[in-house]
Amino acid sequence: MTTHILAIDDSRTIRSLLTMALEGAGFAVTTAVDGVDGVNKFREKHADLVITDVNMPNKDGFGVIEDIRSSDTNRGVPVLVLTTESGAALKERARKAGATGWIVKPFDDESLISVIRRLTGA
Amino acid sequence: MTQDSSILNAFFEECEDLIVALTEGLEAMREGHADDETVNAVFRAVHSIKGAAGAFALDELVGFAHKFETVLDEVRSHRLETDDGLLRTLQRAGDILADLVDDARAQTPANRNAVDPVLAELQALLGPETAQEEEEFVFEAMTLDFGPLDDAEGGYRVTFKPSAEFYATGNDPVLILKALSELGEVKTQLDTSALPDSFDAFDWSAGYLVWTVDIPGLGTDLAIRDVFQFMDDLCDLKVEPLTEESVPELLEPDPVPVTAQPVAPVDEPQEQAAVPAPKPADRTVKKPATTLRVDPERVDRLINAVGELIINQSVISQRLQEADLPNSSDLFSDLDDYKLLAREIQEGVMAIRAQPVKPLFQRMLRIAREAADATDKDVELVTEGESTEVDKTVVERLADPLTHMIRNAIDHGIETPDQRQAAGKPRQGTLRLSASQRSGSIVIEIADNGAGLNRPRIRDIAVERGLIPSDAVLSDPEIDQLLFAPGFSTAKEVTNLSGRGVGMDVVKTAITALGGRVAIATIPGEGTTFSITLPLTLAVMDGMIITVCGQTMVVPISSILETIRPTESDLSMLGLKSQLLHIRGDYVPIIDLGERLGHPASDKPMADRVLLLLQTESVSQCALAVDDIFDQRQVVVKSMQGSYGEIVGVSGATILGDGKIALIIDPDAIAHSGAMPQHIHTSPQGDRIHATA
């Protein structure tokens, strides 16, 4: 079964790059343009893994993760934070919200894909 | 990340939008009505540019955006006071960021002379102590501390005990075991001794299980680190070389096959877990607009096809008329439907190309700011009607004329603060840039509240430049029009702003090329307003089909106020040849179109002809005498430049339903020009002029 990934980022460019890299690796990709859109799409379609930006309008990445984790059934869905920052404080916040891991932009296609494969067992 | 030119283009397009959002937000901050969300939006715009620019290794852009973003982060967390100085720095930084985007797009190196001072200003705001966090943009695989990086001949033993958090953050031990098993031949054991004896004591969120995985064949622990990326703090983890002692029989408790399910989520009330309550439904959440990005060429192709469709429609109507069908024929109503549809398609296609003038106006804010700085003037630029939509080509081609006019208005129109004060005006001048749609046209106004045009000086300069004889008698509007004469420039010395030998004639040429007009209204001491009137679309216009001296021509509907079939009592003579139209208590000069185009004066009495009451820019009203009028219809405008050069009084040509060419009259030029030197006519068949699209 195709692994389905939800990519949430307010930057069109990053969305394109993610889609290209992930679809190229054989994943099915849904994109969302901000936090609220992301949570809605997650509820509608579910996903095997979520990649989310942090700084976004309407709802930030932490909010997205908290929303996803607020349901028991989604506890096991890996969520990767895609961020330009790599500070310890940010990681701690992300972890607290329930993030599985973080990828620093600009991301490297191969590392991203290998991380996703590992986290989804794909 | 993968480099791809179409994605790079998408990035630059996105940057355009982000720069607009940024400029807008900064403007709102400067005007003092910025809430936290505005500041956040500004931050995000810069942040997004930085994030995406990194993907394309646009280092200068990333570096600057990073510094800018850091300052904005301080601002949004209220650690920096937003005073005037700060806001000015932010605006300058916004300008530089826009420049850097442009540079990156054009693949030209950044202008360090412009960038560095602003970079220094930003750094100054941050103070020296934050200068050290630099390595931020490096992809950082988690470094896990497993102790010394020995190569172990005999492989490794991994012992890990996931914590509660491990399970709460989307991790799955099965996947870890699977990943480890891919590293080689593995031997796995599960220690379940920590599981409580009774089910009631079972806390589903706690981590009870400990796995031990031996990977005898593995040479280094690097791959193991990879597997546990992100998880260093989520489990008790031990990675050690396998030794002789550890290889034999392992820990006692019942070995469990790898495939065993780990702690399956148990349905149980979850109050004990640190789960945040779901937030109440989000407040004012904008539904993200879905847009479609289309190659402009495709739209242009569509527009051309629509033009052909309209011509085709008039051909069909012509044929139908010639076929002498009974009026009751269904074909006529079918044709009406066809026309309606064609118009709808045309409007739809035009709407695709329409763009709000907002980004253009945003750019002008910056132009105004720079011009004010360069001339030491205090100018506020007010924009109105930013959502007015104009054809994309028009928006693009308006940038230069507008830039020039705004610089002019600030350089020549608005006085210095001291002069203004002396004249009893507020020290700060105002420049108003507005756009609006009026009956089929777009009107863009640039209004300053400066000193107004200095007509005696304009006249002197025109005489000096040999543009007019020194004894010429000119009306005020005629003097104003001198500004647009080629070779006219009022700058005493060439200032680096509006000088450069480029005059307003270039502005006028650019506007005319768009089928538009420029008008000036000035009140001494109170200011000057330039009005640019542009057609809504460039390709198709509504025209009145007329004949004069046996030729069929088109007059744009937009300039016709009304059509009049005059009676003798409406007419009066002025001198021997000129006639006036008496309308609603006013006298309006009558211009004979045929004569203006160089034909011999018609002997047809005026009362048998038709007058078109025109509204033009240079002459307030006039009546254009033509022989007859036919119907109004849409015509496709074809430019004649290239084939015929510029002919005063004629703005273009079109193809009529019968396949003949008809010239399109420029009412403004006709009303304004004196006797026409050229004799313009189409060949008797009227179909051999080469009009170019």
UniProtKB/TrEMBL annotation, chain A:
Residues 4-120 form the Response regulatory domain. Pfam families: Response_reg. Keywords: Phosphoprotein. One of its GO terms (biological process) is phosphorelay signal transduction system. PROSITE patterns: RESPONSE_REGULATORY. SMART domains: REC. The modification 4-aspartylphosphate is found at residue 53. InterPro entries: Bact_response_regulator (IPR050595), CheY-like_superfamily (IPR011006), Sig_transdc_resp-reg_receiver (IPR001789). This is Response regulator.
UniProtKB/TrEMBL annotation, chain B:
Residues 540-676 form the CheW-like domain. It holds the Pfam family CheW. Its EC number is 2.7.13.3. GO terms for cellular component: cytoplasm. The modification Phosphohistidine is found at residue 47. It is an enzyme of class 2 (transferase). It catalyses: ATP + protein L-histidine = ADP + protein N-phospho-L-histidine. Residues 1-104 form the HPt domain. GO terms for molecular function: ATP binding; phosphorelay sensor kinase activity. Keywords: ATP-binding, Chemotaxis, Kinase, Nucleotide-binding, Phosphoprotein, Transferase, Two-component regulatory system. One of its GO terms (biological process) is chemotaxis. SMART domains: CheW (SM00260), H-kinase_dim (SM01231), HATPase_c (SM00387), HPT (SM00073). Residues 280-538 form the Histidine kinase domain. It comes from the Bacteria. PROSITE patterns: CHEW, HIS_KIN, HPT. Involved in the transmission of sensory signals from the chemoreceptors to the flagellar motors. CheA is autophosphorylated; it can transfer its phosphate group to either CheB or CheY. This is Chemotaxis protein CheA. It comes from Yoonia rhodophyticola.
